[in-house]
Amino acid sequence: MEGYGRFLALLASALLVGFVSVILSLVWVFHYREGLSWDGSSAEFNWHPVLIVTGFVFIQGIAIIVYRLPWTWKCSKLLMKFIHAGLNTIAMILAIVAMVAAFDYHNARNIPNMYSLHSWIGLTAVIFYALQLFCGFAVFLLPFAPAHLRAAVMPIHAYSGLTIFATVIATSLMGITEKLIFGLSSPSYSESPPEATLVNCLGLLLVIFGSLILWMASRPYWKRPPEENAKILSPIGANPEGTEVESTMTNSSNADKADLRSNTEEARKQNIKFDEAGQRSTM
Amino acid sequence: MEGYGRFLALLASALLVGFVSVILSLVWVFHYREGLSWDGSSAEFNWHPVLIVTGFVFIQGIAIIVYRLPWTWKCSKLLMKFIHAGLNTIAMILAIVAMVAAFDYHNARNIPNMYSLHSWIGLTAVIFYALQLFCGFAVFLLPFAPAHLRAAVMPIHAYSGLTIFATVIATSLMGITEKLIFGLSSPSYSESPPEATLVNCLGLLLVIFGSLILWMASRPYWKRPPEENAKILSPIGANPEGTEVESTMTNSSNADKADLRSNTEEARKQNIKFDEAGQRSTM
What we know:
homodimer
């Protein structure tokens, strides 16, 4: 793998930043707030930030880059698809529980639901995330979609995955802003009490985590190698969709061909150069 | 151009959404707030949302996709670089004036500065944007940087441009949230007065605008054709960095070669296929 050390350093940074974010959300609710419970009180609301940071940001981020971990390249593509879909499903469930906690708390306190921009964009993100999961499952995991459909849907799937992820982080920042304004009084948010500083730092870490994931997910030389190298080595003028189908969208019936692949170093280099030129000139 | 109709439809949508966003920010400050002035009052603060939406979101978004407008492909690359840098400079100036308006207003009212997550991330975005402008100017516009340096910096320049743009939109959403919570009382934000609905819609439009720009900026088949096609047609195993330098980073001394290019349809198609494979398998 080209730049293996750099990849490991970035992965370690992303894991550290994501892990510290989860810890900070727990410190926030246990040290500065009422802890966690499920009784309609503020402690029920507190599940909302904890589960969003843990599930909808951290686990979703890991799901995005899971194909790029070099030690998974010897696993079959189908297994990796299950892990990718599984992590996203866990993130989805945690996001829904987080949403229910917020609604429950609002209802118990007679606070209106769905009036804020945070709630509008947050609910939209959850709906799009569910659609993304459903379409991903139907097109890439089930064995029915033809290769040309997979090839057509793949760029949309990748684009919407990253866009939803960025939108989820933006929504978290709005949520943090709301909670600090409503939750802090004597001293208020504008007086910068330690809680405000801690949670602002949590917001900054979420942005850094998102930036690291987006960088790792968009580098061509850290992409999982294709299942078969033969097509990669075809001339530049040949239809690259075959390449694409093999490299990122191998369907389940092809997945068990994984052991057949001959991952020569030369083929990898060819593939990297091919991707690199396309990616550099596009991004 | 492949998918010319689709490109035009998306461009028209982005322009419409961006234009309506600017109008909504003006309706907000003139119809629901105190209008615009420069006297330390709330009307001075109102420059902040108007200039951020107009400059830091709308103009920056246009600057990102300006190379992709097909009717500019006959213009020299150097001219397009000046337009790209010029639009970004205008956006930068408007963002700084917007920031000064907010600080002035805070100081006149004895409201603390720099306590909120909005201000932390907003200031960070402005600093990174200034660095991005400076580095872009030094590396891509001035004729001193060698080709290999341009090739090395280009992916970072493109990545950080898009990441800063997304961060600016996220920061705007936090700013909208803050202003609606602090600015609305009897009826409050949670009672959903018309102003809250209007400004929530503005926030939604900013997310849609950002998503459209990111889609258009990351499609390989809408990329400006390279200045010289010879290098594109070199075999796949050849170093693609030359391709990249020609296709997106032609330096100023090369820019005047533009008239020499022979944009045959065949060469264009080769280039599109080349990019497409790299991009699809990466994004």
